[in-house]
């Protein structure tokens, strides 16, 4: 059986380029210390972003606040419908960077650097030159869920982008002649992607369908290699899978967000779910699609055919969209958040870069500059928004903890509600132990001296009352104090911290 065509560009068949293309290629192929300067700038961008976020933010995002709770201990699983790999990585990094907020920003910077490098490498692997590969990397900034939200707010989604991009790089290089270690690496990354976010399963299935569609599945996965792949994958996911089977209530704790079977007419619910999915995908890719389409213009006269790697990429991408579209049809889910398709949709940056390269290679340079400008604008906007008075990121959590302890004495552990605000107390004191009823493993920190914290004007939440009962505390016997929440500018916010304690000091 002959080997498939190589994925790299064939020097014997150069692509037609004009003077404008040559000029941009000369600029974008420059190197410094032997490394292409676009890659160096990309690495510098995320290092600077992590530094600025650490300096300008006092608090974590919603997802980051959740990690302030889960990262208190290593577990095979944590629940809330998310796998554990992000928390494991954060716990490991906090052994070297003890400041929780700095550790989170450094971890995200490393994830994005790895993911963007993998996209660049994947573009090179399917035959794109360095300028088009740079464009594929920068096109990610035109996907709001990656270029904006994942940098600032997401945790597991940022990780699945990184592991998915690395998996894509290995996938595009699989061939019948690939050594066994490449198959092992593919399955290992597939397992890590599944431990990043469960939606990575769509990407893995799409890759297998893409190989089948290009008649490479049996060639790339003969029986022995297939068994090796399955064994490595199973070894990686098995511990969490076993934990999940024993904690199904925690695993599906947030399944209600999908609004499963909420319509009296199942057909109506499935049609609404399919429409919501389509809207989510459009929201994800529309900005990039509009820019790439406008730059390519009409009529579409491709200057070259697709390489074998591009064919595999396109087959995989279309398969991912189709497989994910089956979710509302099969499950009855009627709600899709814009970020949920991320694991299957992020390769669109490669698809779009390939599209432009085949149609209008002379426009790659201007598009690179445009995307770079968008990236800089995002950085400025992200850090400006974080610094605005009234932002949750600007609450003075160190001062809040100090004022609280002035009234109730030293605090070793606390049961909290409203975790997006109160979990940030661990930023002020990392050794503070927080208990959340949603994470049963945190109950190991519960004792009779634990303080109960909540915000809002209502009384002590029922979840906190239940936790107090576990250590024999009657809420009526607890003393309640109020502490205003003040931001770093000295402004009193609308929120008030309530604390219930056994005795006053």
From TrEMBL:
GO molecular function list: pentosyltransferase activity
Top-level enzyme category: transferase
Membrane topology: Multi-pass membrane protein
Keywords for the protein's UniProt record, in alphabetical order: Cell membrane, Glycosyltransferase, Membrane, Transferase, Transmembrane, Transmembrane helix
One Pfam family in the UniProt entry: PMT_2
GO cellular component: plasma membrane
EC code: 2.4.-.-
Chief location: membrane
Record-given protein name: Glycosyltransferase family 39 protein
Originating species: Tianweitania sediminis
């Amino acid at each position: 059986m002959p080997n498939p065509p190589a994925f790299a560009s064939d020097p014997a068949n150069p692509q037609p380029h004009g003077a404008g293309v040559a000029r941009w290629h000369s600029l974008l192929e420059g190197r410094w210390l032997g490394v292409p300067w676009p890659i160096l700038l990309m690495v510098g961008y995320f290092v600077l972003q992590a530094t600025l976020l650490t300096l300008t933010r006092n608090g974590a995002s919603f997802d980051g606040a959740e990690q302030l709770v889960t990262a208190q201990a290593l577990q095979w699983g944590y629940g809330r419908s998310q796998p554990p790999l992000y928390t494991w990585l954060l716990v490991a990094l906090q052994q070297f960077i003890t400041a929780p907020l700095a550790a989170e920003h450094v971890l995200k910077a490393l994830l994005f650097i790895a993911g963007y490098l993998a996209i660049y490498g994947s573009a090179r692997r399917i035959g794109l030159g360095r300028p088009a590969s740079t464009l594929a990397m920068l096109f990610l900034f035109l996907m709001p869920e990656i270029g904006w939200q994942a940098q600032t707010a997401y945790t597991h989604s940022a990780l699945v982008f990184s592991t998915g991009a690395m998996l894509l790089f290995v996938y595009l290089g699989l061939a019948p002649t690939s050594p066994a270690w490449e198959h092992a690496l593919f399955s290992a990354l597939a397992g890590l992607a599944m431990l990043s976010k469960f939606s990575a399963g769509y990407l893995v299935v799409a890759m297998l369908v893409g190989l089948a569609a290009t008649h490479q599945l049996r060639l790339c996965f003969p029986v022995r290699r297939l068994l090796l792949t399955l064994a490595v994958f199973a070894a990686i996911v098995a511990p969490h899978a076993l934990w999940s089977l024993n904690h199904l209530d925690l695993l599906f704790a947030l399944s209600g967000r999908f609004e499963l079977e909420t319509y009296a007419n199942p057909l109506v619910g499935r049609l609404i779910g399919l429409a919501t999915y389509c809207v989510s995908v459009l929201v994800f890719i529309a900005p990039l699609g509009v820019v790439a389409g406008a730059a390519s213009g009409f009529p579409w006269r491709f200057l070259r055919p697709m390489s074998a790697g591009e064919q595999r990429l396109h087959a995989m991408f279309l398969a991912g969209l189709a497989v994910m579209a089956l979710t509302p049809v099969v499950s009855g889910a009627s709600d899709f958040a814009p970020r949920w398709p991320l694991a299957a949709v992020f390769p669109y940056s490669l698809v779009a870069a390939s599209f432009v390269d085949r149609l209008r290679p002379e426009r790659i340079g201007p598009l690179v500059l445009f995307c770079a400008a968008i990236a800089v604008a995002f950085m400025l906007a992200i850090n400006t928004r974080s610094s605005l008075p009234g932002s949750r990121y600007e609450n003075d959590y160190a001062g809040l903890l100090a004022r609280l302890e002035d009234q109730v004495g030293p605090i070793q552990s606390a049961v909290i509600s409203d975790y997006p605000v109160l979990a940030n107390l661990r930023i002020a004191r990392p050794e503070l132990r927080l208990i959340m009823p949603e994470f049963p493993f945190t109950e190991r920190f519960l004792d009779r001296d634990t303080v109960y914290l909540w915000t809002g004007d209502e009384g002590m939440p029922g979840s906190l009352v239940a936790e107090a009962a576990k250590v024999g505390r009657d809420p009526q016997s607890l003393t309640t104090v109020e502490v205003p929440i003040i931001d770093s500018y000295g402004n009193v916010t609308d929120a008030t911290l309530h604390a219930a304690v056994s005795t006053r000091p």
